[in-house]
Amino acid sequence: MTDLAVPPADSPSATSALEVDNLEVVYRVRGIDRVVLRGVSFTIAPGEAYGLVGESGCGKSTTAYAALRYLPRNGRIIGGRVLVGGLDVTAMSESRLRQFRARDASMVYQDPAQAMNPTIRVGRQLIESFTLLGQSNSQASRSAIEALRKVRIADPERVMDRYPFQLSGGMQQRVVIAMALACDPKLLVLDEPTTGLDATVEAEVLDLVRTLRTESDAAVLLIAHNLGIIRSLCDRVGVMYAGRIVEEGPSAEVFDHPQHPYTVGLLRSLPRRGVRKTEKALDTIPGILPLIGADLPTCVFVDRCALADDTCRTVVPPVVPIGTDGNRYSRCHHVDRLASLAETPGHVAISMLTPDEAHPGVLQLSHVSKTFHQRSTAIPALVDVDLDLAAGETLGIVGESGSGKSTLAKTMLGIESLDMGGRVALDGHQLAASTVDRSADDKRSMQMIFQNPDSALNRSWSVRRILVRSVEKLTGIKGKEANDRVEALAAHLRLTPRHLDLRPRQLSGGLKQRVAIARAFVGDPRIVVCDEPTSALDVSVQAAILNLLADLQVEQQTSYVFISHDMGVVRYLADRIAVMYLGRIQEIGPTDEVFNGPNHPYTEALLSAIPDVDGGVKARIRLDGEIPSPANPPSGCVFHPRCPRAIEGLCETTEPPLQQAGSGHLIRCHIPVEQLVELQRKPSVDA
Amino acid sequence: MEPAAPAPASPPSTTDDGRPAVEVIVAGVQQASERKLARRENWRLIRRRPSFIIGVFIVLVWVVCAVLGSRLAPHDPLDFRAKVHLPPSADFPFGTDKTGRDVLSRVIAGARDVLKIAPAAAFLGGIFGVVLGMLMGYIGKRLDLVLSRIVEAFIALPVLLLALLAIVTLGNSAWVVLGVVAALFTPIVARTVRAAVMAERDLDYVTSAKLRGESSSFIMFREILPNVMGPIIVELTVRIGYAVFTISTLSFLGAGPPPPSPDWGAQVSEGYNSIAAGIWWTTFFPAAAIASLVIAVNLIADSVQSVLEAS
């Protein structure tokens, strides 16, 4: 980073790519103006990358959109200025603004599929971005090909001929980035650019953005909820809360030594540095984000802050410079007292039993396959899966989209019937293939927590009805007794009787997920399948839900099958991890062994793709190509076309064996374990 | 349509952690009142819509006519005789028809039949349509394939001819008209319901219901139905308008109640031959009655739809 990053206060606009000065924005909802931004100020130097973090609803996206004056119709800038390259965006006429957006600034959105017109070929859309700049058609099409090369698309001519839906998500996002860079913008705004992408694809797109930054002097404003991405990509970061930046500084410093109570809370609620549930409970941030438009005259964080005192309630916190460089500040009265913020006392989860001959485990899957039939093609979504689940154990299942994680969950539960020849057994007795044919007791024993509580809870039922109905169906208890049981369980999960009479949409995401968890637990299940239960939640809420799941498990000896794409979360909660690729388990083993290696090359790539909030240095394993269609799996080892360690002549012809890499640690690979150990030896940091 | 504000438009949230219960309750109360306010606001908005007010007003006028009938009519709609073809005047605001009956009285009396049969037909067709659409949408697979083709075939047929044929064969009692109109509407409602149900059936609350062993009929009618009531209510309201129209058309074509009846369609049918002779009022007023009722019902349907969509 250069000295330009934080220009002196008196002459900023001359050198800044973006200067946001005391920006105030309101949304008009039901006739009332509600404040969303309460005086946001920051600057980005040319070539610098600046990240905004914070939980949903804190105003990150509004800030990004306001920077291009691209607010929804009910949004209005009521104060402050936005200068891009010295031009006052807030004062531009409509036609000037259009010109500005075409030439000086670009935006990349979360969902690339929605950023492109699905009925027009990629090439024409890309060429349009150049003709708009005044290039002739032939010139523009040359520029388009060049632009695709620039975003590392190997075969631009072929891609230009495609329609957006014919490209994978990662390719789509590359094309969108190419369009955004067409005008060589002074400012590039990226709003959650990789949120919808798989881990390995996300890593590739982030690599691309990193490379492009060295080739262009565009300033980057990056919005992401994933702190690891911000750390790996941004020079500086601003932490937003309730429409104000509460802390700002160089990314590494902010994430390593947070200087605002909110930043401290946010970082502590993440499962970091390989922490496990047996070591400590995750911290949560008490309270809730204020509603938009709430009256917050002083410190915006005061209601949730453990350090808050009367000063915080009466005096607006000053901008407190941190350190001597002048590039870091915190808006807090009590920066000096941060050390006294107490961590949640540690708690120890039960140690689980590894299934062996003596303890065969509550759930056994042997030779479980599931083939979907679409017209005349057979799509094998699960191929010959064997699993054992011990009582009180958490089995994490990871893998990218299309790996068969959810199909595995659904097949266990009988939502999908498994193919002939496979067997799912609970406590030694074989379960019927379909839920419908399972006994009431079997249904009670296996329940599920879904990813999206909005979809999982019937929106026209009250919470009480949802829970009582489950008690009645699963346990046979009726009437008042059922109601009593629901109230007891709800209280245990910190839901109040008031919540019981609300409808799901009147609850926050975290409370909804609590209701869904309560529903799964009404019948004292043996096994609960959790399908990405926290991926729709903010990190502080995620922490509370993970703590709750860990506690319930300790009390009830419940086994979890925990599906997630977030390796940090899986590492925290899971006792064992299974890695899936194209419907096959490629590696399975105790969590520590999977994280320490040796690994299957796919696991290796997956692990190296995680952007680390702690800034750990990792050698990235790049994967070539895209995840193949399950309908047409590669021969031999299904991973061989993308495997950087594939052995020619062997991997594409022969299916690899399961090798023992440690106690209960199995890897499906041709490369001998000793060789994998050698290949994957972690490079020491000094080297 | 206003685009939702990006982040802050998310619903107000309550706490997610282990705060003392009192605080949690406070947060909940604030929120409940916020929601109640929102709902009241919605009703305030719908009540302020001129189209809704006009629609309700017109429908109410016809409902009063239907209920009071001959007590409201200045003359007996069937037996009163004045001079034939008197133009509108102070004594006979809508004039008299070719047998000297008071058109105003007949228009008022005509409201009763149509207001009895049209909503009943729409409702009956709605019930059948909901059941059929639910089966098609939820059970799906082959059943849907077969039923969908039948529904499409039915919709493709010239309905009026079909209805006329049925009435000619079965007789033109009010019950037959009701049944025929209901049967005409069933496939149309079924199609709407099917589409709405298909959007619901893959949601996780349905999976969850299966996991606890609910029957298909419970899932269809207790879990899914309340969530698709919006489109069903709109469809039913629209259908009432169409039912008025269809019933009047049938009686215009002679498939309605026999001559002395003051049915609007029948009156138009009796009078339209005389328009060329300048006697417009025997046709105009019953026709206007039909139009006003159909338009009024559609105005209400529009308002209901926009409010349900907004919330």
Account of the protein in words:
The complex is a heterodimer of chains A (687) and B (311). With 687 residues, chain A is an alpha/beta fold. Helices cover 31% and strands 21% of the residues of chain A. Chain A contains 24 helices and 24 strands. In chain A, helix 4 packs across helix 5 (137-150), helix 4 (122-131) runs parallel beside helix 7 (169-181) and helix 16 packs across helix 17. Mean pLDDT of chain A is 84; it is low at 1-13. With 311 residues, chain B is mostly helical. Chain B contains eleven helices and no strands. Mean pLDDT of chain B is 82; it is low at 1-31. At the A-B interface, helix 1, strand 18, helix 16, helix 19 and helix 20 of A face helix 1 and helix 7 of B.
Secondary-structure map with pairings?
The complex is a heterodimer of chains A (687) and B (311).
Chain A: E1 18-29, E2 32-44, E3 49-53, H1 60-67, E4 75-84, E5 87-88, H2 94-103, E6 105-108, H3 112-115, H4 122-131, H5 137-150, H6 156-160, H7 169-181, E7 187-191, H8 199-215, E8 219-223, H9 227-233, E9 236-241, E10 244-250, H10 251-256, H11 261-268, H12 310-314, E11 320-321, E12 329-330, E13 363-374, E14 377-389, E15 394-398, H13 405-413, E16 423-426, E17 429-430, H14 440-445, E18 446-449, H15 453-456, H16 463-475, H17 479-492, H18 497-500, H19 509-521, E19 527-531, H20 539-556, E20 559-563, H21 567-573, E21 576-581, E22 584-590, H22 591-596, H23 601-608, E23 658-662, E24 665-668, H24 673-679
Parallel strand pairs in A: 3-8, 3-9, 6-7, 7-8, 15-20, 15-21, 18-19, 19-20
Antiparallel strand pairs in A: 1-2, 1-4, 4-5, 9-10, 10-12, 11-12, 13-14, 13-16, 16-17, 21-22, 22-24, 23-24
Helix pairs in contact in A: 4-5, 4-7, 5-7, 7-8, 16-17, 16-19, 19-20
Chain B: H1 21-48, H2 50-68, H3 103-139, H4 141-156, H5 159-170, H6 174-201, H7 204-211, H8 216-224, H9 229-252, H10 264-271, H11 281-310
